Amino acid sequence: MSLHTTRKLKIHQPENFEFDSIPDSHSWGNLHDHPSVEPIGPDAIPVIDLNDPKLIEKIGKACEEWGVFIIRNHGIEPEVLNRLCSQMHRLFALPAEVKLKVAKAEGNDVGYGGTPVSHFFPKFSWFEGFAIVGSPVDHAQKLWPDDYSSFCEVIEEYNKAINSLGCRLIHAMLLSLGVSEEALHQTPLGDSSKIKTAMHLNSYPACTNPDRVLGLPPHTDSACVAIVYQNGVSGLQVLRCKDDIAPTRWVRVPAVPDTFVVNIGDLMHVLSNGRFHNVLHRVTISKTNRLSSACFFGPQADEKVGPHSKLAGLEESPLYRPVTWPGLQKIRSMLHDKALQAIKIDSN
Ligand SMILES: C=C1C[C@]23C[C@H]1CC[C@H]2[C@@]12CCC[C@@](C)(C(=O)O1)[C@H]2[C@@H]3C(=O)O
Ligand SMILES: O=C(O)CCC(=O)C(=O)O
Ligand SMILES: [Fe+2]
After folding, report:
1. Do the strands 36-37 and 249-252 form a parallel or antiparallel pair, or are they unpaired?
2. Ligand 2 center–CA 183 separation, angstroms
3. What is the mean pLDDT of residues 166-193?
4. Which residues contact ligand 1 via a Cβ below 6 A?
5. How much is the pTM?
6. What was the ipTM of the complex prediction?
7. Topology (CATH level 3) of domain 33-343
8. Whose CA is nearest to atom 7 of ligand 1?
9. Residue 241 DSSP class
């Protein structure tokens, strides 16, 4: 594979260099801008049991104070996740030239490659990804001409399960904001058929010198909500801003068996009129290979999301102008982390 291709995709390709030596292109100099801390004491990331009688209240608090939380008792069978993991292994173990048959085309978000956010950073990510929206059948046929159906079946099974979980979480968040059950069904996120899902399968190869490389650079997700499954190996860190307890720090998100991590994205911050925290996060690398999946949930492409009228009414004025999900992604592709400022009402 040409270096040009990997450079364009901005992904890690181990066969391009010796595993032990980190090329300058992948060596980050500023990874310790803030200290990395363990999730203990006041930095313990909230863990929420979805069967908790106080679920709505707890979710609202976690979204406001953290923008990230861990969920247990989510109802997705471990076998579904095991099947997903074996297909992820199978996918990333393919030779680079096979994976490149389904490389993301310019301006297209599906297929194999890097992430849009990496283009704002001078260094490469220690990462390769595969993005799925809708059915992956066309890509799977190119990857495994003789046996593509098992991949598609597993993805479909996971998609169904994660979709209803995403829908449940979004509902709980809206209820916690004071939106009534009735009003909820009129929002662009009201039922699972209205919610759009994008699935990202991520692979972070092991590295003998993990302190100098980065899996994914710091970013917020543009979606309303992201549900991340980390397969037993941690790596995800969330930024906790300076408070009474400590200066700004990166808090490790533990990989607790049988749980998912839920992140609040930009659109939920907008919808909640700034109440919910769109958490900045990044992925670090370790000496162990790591696989994760991130599912992003948002409205259909033509639906605008603005501060909910329940929140931005007579007493509180709306902080943001409504945007569609693709509209926000476009602004982010130009303005990176200044995108929300650009749709802020008082700044214009
Ligand atoms: C549906 C999505 C969500 C995307 C864009 C598109 C496909 C790729 C997703 C991610 C995944 C990695 C972080 C992020 C910030 C990135 O660069 O690519 C995400 C981005 C977003 O949250 O906007
Ligand atoms: O791999 C992870 O834990 C998180 C991935 C992530 O943040 C993303 O795909 O947006
Ligand atoms: Fe993310």
Report:
1. parallel
2. 32
3. 90
4. 109, 115-117, 131, 198, 200, 219, 221-223, 296, 329
5. 0.95
6. 0.99
7. Jelly Rolls (2.60.120)
8. 109
9. -
Please confirm, yes or no, whether 290 is among the known catalytic residues. Answer: yes
- At 265-316, the pLDDT tens digits run 999 999 999 999 999 999 999 999 999 999 999 999 999 999 998 887 767 8
DSSP per-residue codes, 245-274: S-SSEEEE----TT-EEEEE-HHHHHHTTT
Mean pLDDT over each residue of the chain, to the nearest integer: 92
Q: How far is CA 98 from CA 112, 156, 233, in A?
A: 10, 22, 27
Catalytic residue among 240, 249, 290, 332: 290
Which one-letter DSSP state was computed for residue 279? -
Instruction: Name the residue ranges covered by the structural domains of the chain.
Output: 33-343
Distance 198 CA to ligand 1 centre (A): 9
Q: Which residue, 39, 204, 11, is CA-closest to 125?
A: 11
Q: Which ligand lies nearest to the CA atom of residue 221 in the structure? A: 1
Task: Give the distance between the most distant pair of CA atoms in the chain.
Answer: 62
